[in-house]
Amino acid sequence: MEELPGALGTSPSLVLRLGQAIFASASLFFMCLEIEFYSYTAFCYLVTIMGLMVPWSLTLAVVDGYSVFVRHLPPQARVTAIIVAGDWVLSFLALAASCSTASVADVLLKVGVPYCSAKLCSRYRLSAAMAFLSWFLSLVSALFNLWLLPSL
Amino acid sequence: MEELPGALGTSPSLVLRLGQAIFASASLFFMCLEIEFYSYTAFCYLVTIMGLMVPWSLTLAVVDGYSVFVRHLPPQARVTAIIVAGDWVLSFLALAASCSTASVADVLLKVGVPYCSAKLCSRYRLSAAMAFLSWFLSLVSALFNLWLLPSL
């Protein structure tokens, strides 16, 4: 069977997974560091989802790395189906989280200083942007694996 | 070829499309009627997306209705691919819009009266809930049509 670049066990997939993990970690970093993020539901939700995204992406990055550098793992239908399902669910959740965070940051900036200083709001926005990038890479991974699925 | 319930041209699909159009219209109704929704980006975004969702769903409902009640239309690969793409894009946009609206309504309720009375906030929330239901039905349609696609 031909190998599809971007599907599980290839080097583009490794790059995608590392990108997801890095952007999700950056989003967590900007949201959590010295901020009381738990006063807004949307921010707690973002932290939860990014906290799921990081281990998920890192685990699959390890599998990809093993397949690329150590021993090639042939794709299996059942494993790929589970990964596609997980990717789709996580990508929907990540999109919802990043959009919620971005719009809450927008409203807080409008409402003004007692709720959000300019510095704080820009950090919320950066966090939302990183979550959005992580969502995008996760969607790309999900699409590649979904494309591979019928041929297994 | 076997007919897949939920794919274009079947009666379950007609029900799904009508549901999408009704929920999207309800979302628009709760958001627009006597409210100055354009002061928040998230609400403008919701109105835009639901304003796209209504004609899209109604058009496909008409096609389904024609296929069910007048003359059966066999599914075509190219048409189905376009509909799947449109459904996926609209469903992502609708998810983003409903989550943004819900989280903005949540923050406005927290911030309090000058920005949002209790009655207004409950309308924002209802609007977000309707948009969420519309997203869900749109996702179901997209999944059914995607399932049908490889067999065409």
UniProtKB/TrEMBL annotation, chains A, B:
<dbReference type="InterPro" id="IPR045009">
    <property type="entry name" value="CASPL-5"/>
</dbReference>
<keyword id="KW-0472">Membrane</keyword>
<keyword id="KW-1133">Transmembrane helix</keyword>
<feature type="domain" description="Casparian strip membrane protein">
    <location>
        <begin position="10"/>
        <end position="137"/>
    </location>
</feature>
<feature type="transmembrane region" description="Helical">
    <location>
        <begin position="130"/>
        <end position="149"/>
    </location>
</feature>
<keyword id="KW-0812">Transmembrane</keyword>
<feature type="transmembrane region" description="Helical">
    <location>
        <begin position="88"/>
        <end position="109"/>
    </location>
</feature>
<keyword id="KW-1003">Cell membrane</keyword>
<dbReference type="GO" id="GO:0005886">
    <property type="term" value="C:plasma membrane"/>
</dbReference>
<dbReference type="InterPro" id="IPR006702">
    <property type="entry name" value="CASP_dom"/>
</dbReference>
<protein>
    <recommendedName>
        <fullName>CASP-like protein</fullName>
    </recommendedName>
</protein>
<comment type="subunit">
    <text>Homodimer and heterodimers.</text>
</comment>
<feature type="transmembrane region" description="Helical">
    <location>
        <begin position="45"/>
        <end position="68"/>
    </location>
</feature>
<comment type="similarity">
    <text>Belongs to the Casparian strip membrane proteins (CASP) family.</text>
</comment>
<dbReference type="Pfam" id="PF04535">
    <property type="entry name" value="CASP_dom"/>
</dbReference>
<feature type="transmembrane region" description="Helical">
    <location>
        <begin position="14"/>
        <end position="33"/>
    </location>
</feature>
